[in-house]
Amino acid sequence: MKHVLWILPVALIAAGIWWAVQIKNGPVEVRYTVAKTGPLVDTLITNGKVEPVAYTGVRAERAGVLARLRVEKGQEVAAGAVIAEIESAEWKNALEAAEARVAQIQAELNTQQSGGRASDLADIDGQLAKLLLERQQAEKELAAVRRLIEKNAATKQEAQVIEDRIAQIQQQRNALQSRRAVLFTPADRGVLEARLREARTAVANARDKQAQGILRTPIGGVVYQVDPRAGAFLNPGDLVANIGKVDELLVKVFVDEPELGRVAPGMGAVITWDAMPGKHWSGVVEKLPVQIVTMGTRQVGEVSVRIKNADRTLPPGANINAAIRSREAATAVIIPKESLRRENGVQGVYAITDNALHWRPVKIGVTNITHAQVEEGVKAGEHVVLATDAALRTGQVVKGVSEDAAH
What we know:
Blueprint (H helix, E strand, L loop, with lengths): L1 H23 L3 E7 L1 E24 L4 E6 L6 E2 L4 E6 L1 H25 L4 H33 L5 H26 L4 H27 L1 E3 L4 E6 L6 E2 L4 E18 L11 E5 L7 E8 L4 E4 L2 E11 L10 E18 L4 E3 L2 E8 L2 E6 L1 E5 L3 E6 L6 E3 L12 E5 H4 L1
Parallel strand pairs: 1-21
Antiparallel strand pairs: 1-20, 2-9, 2-14, 3-5, 3-8, 4-7, 5-6, 7-9, 9-13, 10-11, 10-14, 11-13, 12-13, 14-19, 15-16, 16-17, 16-20, 18-19
């Protein structure tokens, strides 16, 4: 009886050792997936920024105070519309001074063209009228004296005295008329006209400067950015507003340098905006980048994607998400990327046939983040081993576990 009790523990230990050896030398358990068929799209996911296809920035041309802002963000304006008005005391004073100068010179010219200063003209004309009366009176007296001479009632000396007085009056009239003529000479007129042209040029220049304070948009569109507020002081070149045509937008999509080879003009793209979940805008890649730029820690190229924005819900300047459909396979044999491995420089997979592993070099076509198209090496329906830490080899017997079962 004691002998039997001793044998029993030994047998149990031996059985345990045998079981452990069997487990160790048994088939390795590996997860697998089934190669499927279906469409596969190579989608490049990145980000970008929205701009209008056509836009202009309205900027201050002169320094001054923004007196009036005529538009607000989101307003639609026509080409030539006034966006803002800038005022400057210097411009205003210069215009008023120039206009006053024109008025002064014009008044002088008018006066001179009418014969001289009014007071001088009135004095000369008054003297001429007085002398005319004196002459007329003297001529009457002379006529009367000559009648008396004919009757021997007066002498020729009396007539000569009157004739001398008439001659003296005429000399005085001639002198006054000469004085009146020289009040305004052609030379004087030329000087005044030159001064008037100069003054009018100063007015035109002052008005041009004033006009530079009236800011207009050269194109029609929607005001999508307004920087300053009324009352702000602006320097030349300061941005007042951006106006653009927003029914159609150009999206600058930032593609990392290594991924640029996956993008070509004509590829479709889908744009989304975090501010409007569930809405998307479809577009087409229009241009590839002409240079690589640094963006934070990234080296990117700016790919241009044109999209429609008929409802104007996507505003210029928005930071967006972009998905470019770089390549598509309508009917493909698809496997997860995690099943791909490289041995001796060759890319391939391990397939399970009759519980044994078989190495299959593969040719890969379209890929996306998680899956790849197999053009050669694997057929639809075959079992392909997923990623594992176990060492695998061709011919090795394994125990396959479906990825669906593993979940």
